[in-house]
Design a protein that fits this description.
There is one protein chain. The chain is α+β, with helices and mostly antiparallel strands and about 475 residues long. The protein folds into three domains: about 150 residues, 2-Layer Sandwich (Beta-Lactamase); about 70 residues, Signal transduction histidine kinase, dimerisation/phosphotransfer (DHp) domain (Helix Hairpins, Orthogonal Bundle); about 170 residues, Heat Shock Protein 90, CATH 3.30.565.10. Strands 5, 6, 7, 8, 9, 10, 11 and 12 form an eight-stranded mixed sheet that branches. β3 and β4 form a beta hairpin. α1 packs antiparallel against α2, α7 packs parallel to α8 and α8 runs antiparallel to α10. It is rod-shaped.
């Protein structure tokens, strides 16, 4: 899963800031300790190394090597002493390496305290003269103070230490970024669910229990969602109630017109036909309003079953072609891949019929409306793609996204005689989105409109294939 941008922005800002602060504090402490440690050893060298060197030479010459070894051991494990001759040989018999011999040779040139530079515990060398006049060099290796080892080591060691600090800071920042970004991302997810029609979506209860601004925002968001759900539910109920109530007087009106027409003079037939036409349009509008009201209540209003889309489309095209023949327009099914979709047969039929009838209404006379159904998997998901193309005037580009809204009619087709009542494509849009699909329209370069419907499909088993072969089907 790809992390959202907000999470990474919060994480990187916190991580960078904490890393800079921690590194600054760490290096400040280590620098202070380093300077403090160096000053301590310099003071120790100035006051004690010369005396210790003379004392060690005296014990070696006047007593024995064993006495010198016991003397060195009395200093404990924090400090290690060795007494060398100018040629680099240890008076106690411990061999010296090449680097130590070089330091001894340099220290033998004078009787100053020398501090060799190297990675490791602090070292000091002090030349002195014994009672017999022989020259010796006292070598001292002092244990580090706490944390002083952190400033020693090679470049690789320092990089590893810096990476360890960065990793520790990253873990803290990950937790902090998740704590801040998670509620915001959850709010985004819930808002998207509401935008797609799931009005029951709410913010998790645990996010509303706090006493911070995020908890207050979550409470306000849930309150807003409840108000929207209540208002839309009330609107849907009102729309449904009005539609039902209007159907009864409309039916009586139609009956009365039929009776009056039978008893009227022939000259009045035109008026009665006009009344019947308008009554049919009102009936059609009420039917579509009822469908919209049911769609507003969600998918539970329409039972979902597997629907063989190619067979359904073939039936729709056959009916549409018969209707179009009355106005010298034809409808053909150019291609139909077998596929199953999850939805309501009646609702999908209504959604597709609305698009095809709209194409028949606007395509030019003696032209053909082409319908095709193909499977597509370019986005990693199996989709049924339906294309309905006509040879009409098309739609202004600025209005392509508006034609799927309720009661919207293209400006050049405002009159009911040409523009319908503006509910058919709105039903198509809501029905397709109800089944996690999408619908869009574009103008064809050769003229006319191309409406595309996409629906997720199920895999089809061999025994589920329809009897038709999916080739060209003329309706």
């Amino acid at each position: 899963m790809v992390m959202p941008k907000l999470f990474w922005k919060i994480f990187l800002w916190f991580w960078g800031a904490m890393l800079i602060v921690n590194c600054a504090i760490l290096f400040s402490i280590l620098s202070f300790r380093s300077v403090s440690e160096q000053n301590r050893f310099k003071q120790f060298a100035q006051s004690m190394m010369s005396l210790q060197a003379r004392k060690a030479a005296e014990i070696y010459e006047s007593q024995s090597p064993k006495a010198l070894s016991d003397y060195f051991r009395d200093f404990g494990q924090d400090t290690h002493f060795s007494l060398y001759r100018p040629d680099g040989s240890d008076v106690l018999g411990t061999p010296a390496d090449g680097t130590t011999r070089l330091w001894i040779s340099e220290a033998a040139q004078d009787e100053k305290t020398h501090f060799p530079r190297h990675y490791g515990p602090p070292l000091m060398l002090q030349a002195t003269t014994g009672p017999s006049g022989a020259k010796y060099i006292l070598f001292s290796e002092h244990a580090s103070l706490p944390f002083a080892h952190l400033i020693r080591g090679g470049i690789g060691t320092q990089i590893l230490r810096l990476l360890a600090v960065a990793l520790a800071v990253a873990m803290v920042c990950l937790v902090l970024a998740h704590y801040i970004a998670s509620p915001i991302l959850h709010l985004q997810s819930v808002s998207r669910r509401i935008a797609t029609g799931d009005l029951t979506a709410r913010v998790r209860a645990r996010l509303t229990r706090g006493r911070d601004e995020i908890a207050d925002l979550s409470k306000d968001f849930n309150l807003m969602a409840e108000q929207i759900e209540t208002l839309l539910h009330s609107q849907s109920q009102l729309l449904q109630a009005i539609s039902h109530e209007m159907r009864s007087p409309l039916a009586r009106l139609t009956l009365a017109v039929g009776l009056a027409k039978a008893a009227s003079i022939p000259e009045s037939d035109g008026l009665f036909e006009r009344i019947e036409t308008e009554a049919e349009r009102i009936e059609q509008m009420l039917s579509q309003l009822l469908i919209l009201a049911r769609l507003d209540r969600g998918a539970t209003s329409f039972p979902r079953t597997p629907v063989e889309l190619s067979l359904l489309l073939s039936d729709i095209v056959s009916d549409a072609s018969f209707e179009g023949s009355a106005t010298r327009r034809s409808v053909i099914l150019t291609h139909a891949d077998p596929c199953l979709v999850d939805g309501s047969d009646a609702l999908l039929r209504s959604a597709i019929e609305n698009v095809i009838r709209n194409a028949i209404r606007y395509t030019r006379e003696s032209s053909t409306v082409e319908v095709s159904l193909k499977l597509d998997n370019t986005a990693g998901q199996d989709l049924a793609v339906i294309h309905v193309t006509d040879e009409g005037p098309g739609v202004p580009s600025a209005e392509l996204s508006q034609i799927f809204k309720p009661f919207y009619r293209v400006s050049s087709a405002r009159e009911r005689e040409t523009g319908g009542i503006g509910l058919g494509l709105a039903i198509t849009d809501r029905a397709v989105h109800l089944y996690q699909g999408s619908v869009s329209a574009r103008n064809r370069s050769e003229g006319g409109l191309d409406v595309e419907i996409r629906l997720p499909v199920f895999p089809i088993l061999p025994n589920q294939l329809p009897p038709t072969d999916g080739d060209l089907i003329n309706a």
